[in-house]
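Protein record

Derive tokens from sequence
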Amino acid sequence: MIWETYQQTKITGAENTAARAMAKADNYAQDISDARDQIERLSLACQAMWELVRERNGITEMELETKILEIDARDGQIDGKIGTQSLTCHHCGKPTHSKRDFCVMCGAPLRRQHKFES
């Protein structure tokens, strides 16, 4: 009888752990789905902006590619990503990186050279 109670407690604990894991997996799956939807909307907006710029300003595909590579290389790697860049705090002059919003040395807000810089 004691052994059966012990076993049932273990089974119930395992079932609860499995249920929590399933709930987390469902939440992650929804987060991934939401991220994919957002990426699709951003891709659509980028394509629309590019076509407007091309049509109204006569910029070529080659010029766009050159600018993409220039921006990609700013972090020292051509890898298709905007990476972390080294910044100098305008207030105290200490180095930090672009993932931060505030200087770790003096707490001043960091200025970004470009709007989408990360």
